[in-house]
Every structure is written in structure tokens, then in C-alpha cells.
Amino acid sequence: MKKFLSIIMVAALSFSLVACGGGGSSEETAAQGGAEAAAEGESAEGEKGRIAYIVGLLGDKSFNDSGEVGMNVLRDEGWDVRTVETGETSDYDKYEDYILDCLDQGYEYIVGSSSYMEIMADLAEEYPDVKFIGFDENWSDDQLPDNMTCIFYKQNEGSYLVGMMAAAMSETGTVGVDVGVENPVINDFVTGYIDGVQAWNAANGTDVKVVKAACGAWDDPAMMKSLVLDQIRNNNADVFFQVAGGSGDGLFEACVEEGKWAIGVDSDQYASYIDSANPEKADVILTSMLKEVGNSLLSLFHDIEAGDESMWGHTIKLGCAEDSIGYVDNEFFQENVPEEVRTAMEDAKAKIASGELVPKSYFDFADENEFNEFVKAAG
Fold this sequence. Notes:
This protein is of the alpha/beta class and 379 residues long. It has helices at residues 7-20, 26-40, 42-48, 63-76, 92-104, 117-126, 155-169, 184-204, 221-235, 248-258, 269-274, 293-305, 331-336, 339-354, 368-378; strands at residues 50-55, 80-85, 109-113, 131-135, 148-153, 174-179, 209-214, 239-243, 261-266, 285-291, 315-318, 325-327. Strand 6 (174-179), helix 8 and strand 7 (209-214) form a beta-alpha-beta unit.
């Protein structure tokens, strides 16, 4: 897959999205998508194609919004794109109904995250003329129908880099990693983060510990705040990595109240907050681990437009080498993270991209027990 040449364009648009993005209803979002398609006119539908982006809720300033940034660029380029918010539900039938509605309306490409993968795979068999695009899931090629592709991100690589930084910035010798809902992809973030902390320890003679917690939801900032406050008061942790979608806002709030450092995820969350109603939250976000969802989807559709059919039936794996995993290097990061730490992170990123350095991955563990022992030992 090509390098992401559209990164600058997407980055320029991401600020406007996260600054005004809200979690409207699925019906409102669908209506908006239809209005935008109508504004594009018949050429949008005929020349480029019709895309349905299935998402939980926008306004998370993270994973979902990153994908919407890519969709907005595709809209501007003449694709007919409808964004459908399903809400935070685990009801399989409701998910399927939303997708079936898009299929009935003639959408040619169905795009959805890991939450919708099994549904899309089943429907791909029934709709062989439609293309299905899943992302953020590590499926093998033999699990994929011929009219489906899967994008998997090596989030352990970026998590390793911010884990190094967390260890370097800790004054208490304990850092935290706090997640929304535990699953294999989220556990891969945790694995890379712990590995980065331990790599910093090995290289610098430190003994920084890692504590982990899960709030059990993507949209419960109050629970997340409570967990982080507990880690501050009972574990003396002072740097926190959130991998929790909308729940992550509670982590930032706790760090503001207690004067601790935070690390964002997926999107540039410093930029998301700096001109928001709560700009003080930006002042605790040292950097964000980037998972370029919008860029990857944009690049994929550029390949499709160019006539590339090689992705169907295959999983595409993207990491530092493809410029789709990394961290935010902004002025705030440069002002607050010492140069020697930033240099070490840059060097490690280059080694990961070249293959010289391979961070630990959750997918390398023999089973869940082995992962749990790894996490336990880190604390």
C-alpha cells in the first residue's frame, strides 16, 4: 500500500472537525450525509462512488473522529459519503439493520471498525457486488471474503514510543495506562506501552512501574476519572496514557485537578482541547499516540480510484514504516519533554520503521494468561 501522501491535507482539516464535532444521532448524521451528497450532485454518485462510514459516535476527539476526517476529504473530492452513527450499543441486530439500510440505498462501499467486522463478513457473502472495508482488527486472509479488506494498525509500535516518554517523565516511578473496553486491539496498546516503559528502564537504570485499569465503556468519563484519581492517590502514579475513546476525557480532567501528565490517543488531542470549552485539558497532554485512521482510509480509496484491486481478500498491516503510527511532535511537546528524551523516541521510531526494533505485541502471547502475567509483572 502506498505511503500516506495525504497526511498534510488531513492534518489541516482535523482541527476543524474535532473542534466542532459532536455526538449527534444516527438519523441526524445520515440526513447530513444525504444533504451533502445532494449538494455534490449526480457527478459525485456517478464518477467516484458511494461510501457508508459506520461508526459508534462522533465527537470522541479520537478514533471515530479521525476516520471522519478522512471521510470529509473524500466528500470534498467528489465521493458520496454517508456517516451513520450507531450509538454505543452491543445490540448485534441494530448494527446489522444500520448496514442493511445502507445496502438497500445502494451504497457500494461499507466501511466499519472492529465492532462491525463479523456482520460485514456475513453480509459480504450475501452482497458480492458490494465492497466491505473493516479496520482496527487483525484478521487473517483466510477469514476474509473476496470482496472485503481489513486494515490492522500496529498500535503497539506507537504505544512503545509514548511508553518510553512516560517512563522518562515520571517523577514518582509509577505510570498508568487506562483503557475503555478490554479487547485484543486495546491489549496491544497496553503491551507496547509497558514494553516501552521497560525498555527505558533497561537503558537508563530506572525501575518505573506500570498500573493498568479499565472503566468498561467508551463513553463513561466519570468512571475513568475515578479510576485515575485512585491510581494517583493509592499508586502514586503521575503520567497516564488513555486508550478509552470518549471516556478518556475523564482521565484528562483528573490530571488537570491533580497536576499530572497525560498522553492522548489516535488523534492530536492537544489540538482538540486547546480551543475547546476546556482548554486547560490541553495543558496536561504531553503528546498523543497517533493512529492515522483517516489517512489510511483516504489512501485506500485513492488506491481504489486508481484501479488497484489488490487489497480485496487481504489484511493490510500498517505501522511506523507506513507513516500511519506515531506520536504528536508539536511545540508543547518540544517545550515540556527534554531533548534527550525526544531524540531517544525519534531514534526508536526509526529503528521500528526499519525493522531493527520490534516492540512486543499482544498478538505474540500464547494466551490471555500470559498477557495478564506480563501486565502484573510490570506493576
